[in-house]
Amino acid sequence: MWWLLAMVAHPEVQRRAQAELDSVVGRECLPTFADAPHLPYVRAIVKEVLRWRPAIERGMPHKTAADDWYERMFIPKGAACIANTWQCNHDRAVFGDDAEDFKPERHLDATGGGLLPGPEKRMGRDM
């Protein structure tokens, strides 16, 4: 749903993605996973949609393995900790003053290629 909203609200993004798809894949077939490395802007849109409007705003709960301290706060062993992914994805120190804006270009380098590796971790590859 958020992908659709982003494309309707940002037609220039949709046009650029369509142009990239047409130039890499053509108009007669669907893209495959083999095409992904050649579609940096489309990949940037996917990353930005997941950052801008994450499907789950809170991470999975984890329990602490031992007593710990974090910024003068005591966290006892066995305490449930849940990451605030919304805050992480909208941190102005990481994403700039426009962190609330939908901006796929933030995931591209100066040449228009994808920023890999990025601040995210890819399940199965980096973990």
From TrEMBL:
Cofactors that this protein relies on: heme
SUPFAM superfamilies given in the database record: Cytochrome P450
Location of region: Disordered: 104-127
One term under GO cellular component: membrane
Gene3D superfamilies: Cytochrome P450 (1.10.630.10)
One Pfam match: p450
Membrane-spanning parts: none
Subcellular location: Membrane
One term of GO molecular function: heme binding
Predominant subcellular localization, coarse grouping: membrane
Family: Belongs to the cytochrome P450 family.
Annotated protein name in UniProt: Cytochrome P450
Originating species: Russula ochroleuca
